[in-house]
Amino acid sequence: MKKYLIVIEKTGTGYSAYSPDLEGCVATGGTRQEVESQMHEAISFHLESMAENGEPIPEPHTYSAYVEIPSHAQ
Question: Which fold has domain 7-52?
């Protein structure tokens, strides 16, 4: 089993998501849970299509980290 990072962003109408490891693999949803579910389906479909077309399946290679920056109160 492979784990692909997804990035979820709040939009004006809900949420959008993409995977940096899978170019062009995106999804949208009205809630965070919905976009995560849609993204799971999108990744599965994306990888199935790549396999059917004889394309190599990319290995997950991105990761995430948070950087803490002190807030500057005014």
Answer: Double Stranded RNA Binding Domain (3.30.160)
**Residue among 55, 54, 25 nearest 41 (CA):** 25
State the Cα torsion 16-24-47-41 to the nearest 10°. 20
Please report, for the chain, the start and end positions of each structural domain, with discontinuous segments joined by +.
Answer: 7-52
Percent of the chain with pLDDT over 90: 92
pLDDT beneath 50: ranges in the chain = none
58 exposed, middle or buried (CB, 10 Å; 0-12, 13-18, 19+)? middle
Q: How far apart, in whole angstroms, are the C-alpha atoms of residue 24 and residue 1?
A: 21
The pTM of this model reads 0.85
